[in-house]
């Protein structure tokens, strides 16, 4: 038996329709549940709790010796690409997280690029394990 | 003197040279091609090298009854093959996949999960195609799951429903997964306009650690309550992910995504390759499976792309329809293909991160599809 | 690397020739590639490394990190400091070379020869003492964060 006759004989249409509906139902339901995760977590956690590394550290920065970043033709493109990432991450930022994001976005050689930006003082440590962006 | 000549003649008749026929030679050439593609071309080397060498091992002509061949009960290869036929290896691979997968892009934008669901149309349309070609429902379901583009899932379902077809189904699935960069781009360009390919995606929100811990637990409960037959695969996938995200079990996660998955991949690859003995593998049904396998990838890619365009029709916030192709769960190759095709139009369009969302949801979707087909056929 | 070259590294500067020879005998140069992980947080500390070339990042569970860029910088000090478990994960930012020491051999030397042990541990604490304190504070902060989140 072949063709449409075989499909009908083996109940193929019903299996396919029900099957795809179940797959869709599962993933749609999961996506709807995922949408309300942030709301559930906001209810569970206290509001307005600030994490230590997000505190304002401007006064600390002003006391530190100013290091002038070096931007040249070699790192100009990297500065542009990473500035975009860091503007989204916020400061001070986590260095491994920056590398992870750069990798996910398909940026070439994120490890050595970040090292180059540190060496040219475009990225500078804040003294507390996180980093700041100093393009100028 | 006659005795000596007789002994030599007996010895010669037991060698592979005397017992070989064109089917074994053909499969050995196929195995060598797999090894070449893996080593020289870097096409999925972690899969093609073990499978290719397994094909060589499985196609050395041996004297039946000595417990050497994979299909003989007391052979070493048969004992190792038990992990495939019993469906043990695929869940262990899913454990490792869960321990190395970052679901945060999917959690940040759950809408993209639907593209992974849409790509599973390839599974069911191929199922219909296989029925139409005269395959039994069990065989058709096993062939259809190739469209899920997930090797362990394909092997798992074939082991349950069509153990005789594990070899050709696995070879087809892994071959087409390795060829995703060749299969997908023409379909992607055919079904999308340049304007659509230029769409830039909004940056996703940051996902908190607590969300990443809750997700595998909730996802597992939800998916397995809906499709209990997906329990072995999804249970291990979400368990591995929980080990990764909870941080406190990092040693276990590290083991799962390195030692466990590597060991199982070696055993699975070599035994699946060895199962493709020429006299068993080279049949008309294998040719049908390969044709249907190619069609399933194409249909899955097209389904994801078209569904993305449908979402754009109803949504004010547009998504790049190329992301639909990443619903084909060849992780992360199809996501990389999306990035590549997107950057051909605009080098500043970074789609890889966004494409990982439908890519990983496709893994979940294909496991659910496998569970559904298994429960229908049981 | 010769014994004389080893003595030029800051951590081994105070060693006599015979002491440096003992250290040299248990060392080997390891080449690392960009992105390669030298060791992972939580694993038993079995390798102590001295940077010869390249740049490295050591990061912790809460996302904090510091970087090493100078020849002679030390990492993997948990090999010789309790609880002998890596407190962070070390990754090579660029390709380079490190001088690697088997942890158990180094510990045996340090614990077996008081004078040698004093010199090496003194240098380790002088060079990385702040980082040890920082790393240990990161561990305790990370543990309290985990408790709060769960």
Name the beta content range of chain B: under 5%
Largest sheet of chain B: none
Total domain count of chain B: 1
Amount of helix of chain B = over 70%
What share of residues are in beta strands of chain C? 15-25%
Q: Determine the structural class of chain C based on helices, strands and strand pairing.
A: alpha+beta
Q: How many structural domains are formed by the residues of chain C?
A: 1
Give short descriptive properties of this protein.
heterotrimer, A: 136 residues, mainly alpha, 2 domains, two-stranded antiparallel sheet, 7 helices, 58% helix, elongated, C: 150 residues, alpha+beta, Jelly Rolls, 4-stranded antiparallel β-sheet, 4 helices, 25% strand, disordered C terminus
What is the topology?
The complex is a heterotrimer of chains A (136), B (378) and C (150).
Chain A: H1 3-9, H2 12-35, H3 37-44, H4 58-63, H5 76-89, H6 95-104, H7 110-119, E1 123-125, E2 131-133
Antiparallel strand pairs in A: 1-2
Chain B: H1 2-13, H2 16-19, H3 22-39, H4 45-58, H5 76-85, H6 89-100, H7 104-108, H8 113-119, H9 121-132, H10 137-144, H11 151-161, H12 166-178, H13 180-191, H14 194-197, H15 209-226, H16 231-245, H17 250-274, H18 278-281, H19 284-314, H20 333-345, H21 352-377
Chain C: H1 3-7, H2 17-25, E1 27-32, E2 37-39, E3 47-53, E4 56-59, E5 65-68, E6 74-75, E7 89-92, E8 96-102, H3 103-112, H4 114-149
Antiparallel strand pairs in C: 1-8, 2-7, 3-6, 3-8, 4-5, 4-7
């Amino acid at each position: 038996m072949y063709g449409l006759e075989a499909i009908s004989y083996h109940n193929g249409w019903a299996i396919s329709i029900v099957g795809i509906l179940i797959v869709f139902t599962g993933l749609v339901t999961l996506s709807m549940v995922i949408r309300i995760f942030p709301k559930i977590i906001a209810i569970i956690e206290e509001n307005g709790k600030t994490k230590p590394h997000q505190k304002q550290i401007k006064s600390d920065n002003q006391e530190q010796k100013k290091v002038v970043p070096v931007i040249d033709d070699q790192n100009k493109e990297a500065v542009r690409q990473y500035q975009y990432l860091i503007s989204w991450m916020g400061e001070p930022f986590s260095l491994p997280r920056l590398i992870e994001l750069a990798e996910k976005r398909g940026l070439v050689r994120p490890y050595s690029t970040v090292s180059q930006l540190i060496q040219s003082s475009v990225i500078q440590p804040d003294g507390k394990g996180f980093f700041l962006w100093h393009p100028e | 003197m006659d005795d000596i000549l007789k002994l030599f003649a007996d010895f010669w008749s037991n060698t592979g040279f005397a017992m070989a026929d064109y089917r074994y030679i053909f499969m050995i050439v196929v195995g060598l091609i797999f090894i070449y593609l893996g080593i020289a071309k870097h096409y999925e080397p972690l899969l093609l090298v073990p499978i290719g060498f397994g094909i060589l091992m499985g196609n050395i002509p041996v004297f039946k009854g000595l417990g050497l061949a994979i299909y003989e009960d007391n052979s070493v290869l048969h004992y190792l093959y038990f992990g495939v036929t019993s469906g043990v290896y695929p869940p262990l691979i899913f454990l490792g996949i869960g321990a190395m997968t970052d679901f945060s892009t999917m959690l940040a934008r759950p809408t993209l999960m639907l593209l992974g669901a849409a790509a599973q149309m390839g599974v069911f349309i191929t199922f219909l195609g296989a029925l139409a070609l005269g395959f039994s429902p069990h065989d058709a379901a096993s062939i259809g799951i190739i469209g899920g583009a997930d090797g362990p899932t394909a092997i798992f379902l074939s082991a349950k429903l069509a153990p005789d077809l594990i070899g050709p189904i696995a070879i087809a699935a892994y071959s087409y997964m390795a060829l995703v960069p060749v299969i997908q781009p023409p379909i992607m360009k055919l079904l999308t306009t340049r304007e659509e390919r230029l769409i830039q995606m909004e940056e996703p929100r940051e996902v908190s650690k607590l969300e990443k811990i809750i997700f595998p637990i909730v996802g597992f409960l939800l998916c397995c309550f809906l499709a209990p037959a997906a329990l072995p695969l999804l249970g291990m996938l979400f368990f591995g992910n929980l080990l990764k995200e909870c941080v406190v079990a990092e040693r276990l996660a590290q083991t799962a995504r390195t030692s466990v998955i590597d060991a199982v991949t070696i055993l699975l690859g070599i035994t699946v390759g060895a199962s493709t003995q020429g006299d068993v593998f080279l049949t008309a049904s294998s040719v049908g499976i390969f044709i249907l396998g190619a069609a399933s990838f194409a249909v899955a890619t097209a389904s994801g792309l078209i569904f993305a365009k449908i979402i754009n029709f109803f949504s004010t916030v547009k998504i790049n329809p190329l992301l639909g192709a990443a619903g084909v769960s060849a992780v992360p190759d199809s996501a990389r293909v999306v990035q590549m095709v997107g950057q051909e139009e605009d080098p500043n369009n970074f789609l890889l991160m966004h494409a990982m969302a439908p890519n990983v949801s496709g893994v979940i979707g294909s496991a659910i599809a496998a569970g559904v087909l298994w429960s229908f056929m049981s | 690397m010769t014994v004389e070259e080893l003595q030029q590294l800051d951590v081994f500067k105070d060693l006599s020739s015979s002491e440096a020879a003992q250290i040299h005998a248990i060392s080997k140069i390891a080449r690392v590639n960009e992105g390669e992980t030298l060791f992972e947080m939580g694993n038993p500390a079995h390798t102590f490394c001295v940077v010869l070339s390249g740049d490295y990042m050591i990061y912790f569970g809460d996302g904090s990190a510091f970087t090493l860029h100078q020849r002679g910088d030390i990492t993997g000090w948990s090999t010789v400091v309790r609880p002998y478990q890596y407190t962070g994960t070390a990754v090579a930012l660029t390709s380079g070379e490190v001088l690697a020491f088997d942890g158990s051999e180094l510990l045996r030397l340090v614990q077996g020869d008081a004078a040698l042990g004093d010199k090496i541990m003194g240098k380790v604490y002088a060079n990385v003492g702040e980082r040890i304190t920082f790393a240990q504070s990161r561990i305790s902060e990370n543990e309290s964060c985990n408790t709060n989140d769960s």
